[in-house]
Amino acid sequence: MKKIKELALLIDTIFESAALIGLTSMILVVTTQVMTRKLFNFVFFWSEEVTLLLLVWFSFMGMAIGFREGLHLGMDSLIDLLPAKVIKMVELFIEVCVLCFGVYLIVYGWEFTVLMHDSTLPATKLPNSTLYIVMPITGVMICAYSLLHIANINTKRHKGNEIEMGAGLGGDK
């Protein structure tokens, strides 16, 4: 069990690191694009396309990380009014819905990736599937996180993501 946990943590670390590298790269490409355009009246022909690729990849990966950290939208003030057993059932229902969304991303993301493989992006000449392969990857990660949540395994890796509510506004979180 310890080896499985270590492997899962390694995969999760690689996934999160790739998302951060994507965000950092996107910032560098956009900054370079703006500076070269304003200072030299020149734009690299590939910069907008690479920015789009990085934005899509970072957004989808960030979505999976958000599910891992429990940052998705919720209506805690309404849910907190329910009895504890009902809250457990609602949380399980939410996790099953998230799991279904992950499966949807895997199935239809893969179909779309295969469909778009024969066409190429105009500037970089990369296959169009490069833009869409992140969908099934994100789906796998979302499914993994959902299954861990259903098994009542805490997947949060970062502290301080919770919004502190004042007394009388929903209690302590």
TrEMBL record:
The keyword Endoplasmic reticulum does not apply. It is a multi-pass membrane protein. Keywords: Cell inner membrane, Cell membrane, Membrane, Transmembrane, Transmembrane helix, Transport. The lineage of its organism: Bacteria, Bacillati, Bacillota, Negativicutes, Acetonemataceae. Residues 26-152 form the Tripartite ATP-independent periplasmic transporters DctQ component domain. One of its GO terms (cellular component) is plasma membrane. Belongs to the TRAP transporter small permease family. This is C4 decarboxylate transport protein. It is found in: Cell inner membrane. It comes from Acetonema longum DSM 6540.
